[in-house]
Each structure stands twice: as structure tokens, then as C-alpha cells.
User: Fold this.
Amino acid sequence: MSPGHTAITTPVVSCDDDCGIRDVLDRLGDKWSVLVVVQLAAGVHRFKELQRAVDGVSQRMLTLTVRRLERDGLVTRTVHPTVPPQVEYELTELGHSLTVLVKGLADWSLAHRPRIEAARRAWDAKADMPS
Assistant:
């Protein structure tokens, strides 16, 4: 530790015991869940609409993602008795409560994108330099 850096810092968030954050991060830390929640925040979507809206997601990954979100109580799945069956997905009340946090993350990302990109360029430039 440098001589000028001797203070002990207190974490902003503490999770001494299992506070459940790992379970939430397992769900929201994957590549597709947040993007699906963002799309469903706008309203009910049929499966194919959701697949077109979430760029790059395969049918299999979208199926797994909505099943996991449904299991966690964030999404409801409604099957209409038509031929072929029409399936719709919608955020639950719990899912809608998550959108406030997702919007905060999106706003933060947008506001700090230039600084993050500049930091990445600086890092990459250093990494490309011979030692």
C-alpha cells in the first residue's frame, strides 16, 4: 500500500451473510435477461416479436431466458388456445419494479459511455506497447 493510502475504506454495500444478491446477479448478469426485461417493459410481446426485438438472441436462448424469468416471478407466460398456439410474455408487478433499476443502469451507461470508451482505448494502447 502506498504511504498516502492508509485509510481503511468501508464498503458502500455490505453482504456479510447471503443476502440473495448472488441469485439476482445469476439472473440479471446473463447476456439476455436485462434486454428481455427492457423489451417487456414496453408491454406484452409474442415470442417472435420478442425475438426480433432482442437483436442476436437465438430461439433456444430466448426460450431459456423467458423460462428463467418466469421461474423467478418476473415474467408471466400466457398461452392462447389457437392453432398454432399463440404465446405472450408480460412483466409481472415484480418484473416492473425491476425496470426502475434497469433504467438507472441504462442511464448510467449512457452518461459514462464516452469515459469508458476512452479508458478502453488508453488500456488497449498500453497493452499494444512492447514491454
The CA atoms of residues 113 and 119 lie 10 Å apart. The chain has a mean pLDDT of 87.
